[in-house]
Design a protein that fits this description.
There is one protein chain. By secondary structure, this protein is an alpha/beta fold. The chain has twelve helices and ten strands. The longest helix has 19 residues. It binds zinc ion. Zinc ion binds next to loops.
């Protein structure tokens, strides 16, 4: 038996620190990524109906905090910067936005401004409709809008990745067809393994793979199974995507929430954003960053080659970043 070798590049494409500018209570937990061997982490800086100002205040705070700790962290915005951070043993951090809320006024210039500040992917609609398209909790999906087509062109121009997590099925398929770039699912699981509104059909997964994109498997127990945050459940979802579209289109997007109370408050106070879904009423369980090495071991035990494990652990995200980010 060959021993499992640790992957050189480990990339968690989506993590959730509290969205409170000035609050440094949780940010030191970025060390948990480093301790788990993670070399790149995407941090969310805003979602859904939050205001432009909220997005910018959180982004400014995260940037200041991370740049003040150059011995541990580095802001990364290109594939080359990621490789340099890995070589220097730093945790590379980039940012993401869940939704197109800041563009709702028709403000295309927001895309480049956020890109310049380190945001590297944005998703189309956080559960509910935006000016760009529909969310996965909308009862009717009106598809990608004409303004959405302009947004896709602007995202390609500046090098921002398009994501269809949280997005309605019709909107997602129309986005992937219209985008002249790889499209990702930053943190979404296959419905074929566990039927949840937030999970995606095999048709969407195939379309993402066909675009050259990557599906980031999500570590929230509600999306993996019956609040099942086991490593086995996570690997079952990875394996479904690999069997469907091959090992070049799967990655990790744990969606780990560091402040559980903040999440409970959002779920309680934003009933329009999380409508009529009783699954959110229970204590949510997560695959923690510490579990990432065990995921690699579990894939090895399933017979995955080291080459394929390296792709899933981060190589596939790096490939897409090299293709899209500028
Ligand atoms: Zn999300």
């Amino acid at each position: 038996m060959t021993l499992h070798q640790p992957s050189r590049l480990i990339w968690d494409n989506h993590g959730c620190m509290p969205l409170r500018a000035g609050d440094g209570d949780f940010l030191p937990q970025l060390e948990r990524y480093r301790a788990a061997g993670v070399s790149v982490a995407g941090l969310n800086i805003g979602f859904g109906p939050q205001s432009v100002e909220e997005h910018i205040r959180t982004l400014a705070w995260f940037r200041k905090w991370i740049k003040g700790r150059p011995d541990q962290y580095r802001l990364v915005g290109t594939a080359d910067e990621i490789e340099a951070a890995v070589a220097d043993g730093k945790l590379g951090v980039f940012f993401d936005i869940e939704g197109m809320g800041p563009l709702d006024g028709g403000d295309l210039g927001m895309v480049e401004m956020f890109y310049d500040l380190g945001v590297r992917w944005m998703l189309i609609a956080y559960n509910r409709e935006t000016a760009v398209g529909s969310g996965c909790y909308d009862t009717e999906d009106g598809g990608l809008t004409a303004f959405g087509c302009e947004v896709l062109a602007e995202m390609k121009r500046v090098g921002m990745l398009v994501c269809c997590s949280h997005t309605g099925e019709r909107t997602a398929l129309e986005t992937i067809a219209a985008a002249d770039n790889p499209v990702i699912l930053s943190h979404s699981n296959p419905k074929a393994v566990w039927d949840h509104t937030r999970n995606v059909s095999d048709a969407v997964i195939k379309a993402v793979a066909g675009s050259g994109g990557v599906v980031g498997v999500n570590g929230i127990g509600l999306f993996l199974g019956d609040n099942d945050n086991s490593t086995e459940a996570f690997v079952r979802h990875v394996d479904h995507v690999v069997q469907l579209v091959g090992p070049d289109h799967v990655g990790i997007g744990l969606d780990y929430v560091f402040d559980g109370q903040e999440l409970k408050d959002y779920l309680t106070n934003m009933r329009d954003t999380f409508p009529n879904d009783p699954t959110y009423d229970q204590e949510m369980l997560f695959v923690e960053p510490e579990r990432i090495p065990a995921i690699g071991v579990a894939l090895h035990d399933r017979g995955y080659s080291q080459t394929d494990i390296d792709k899933i652990m981060g190589g596939n995200w790096l490939r897409v970043a090299r293709q899209v980010w500028k």
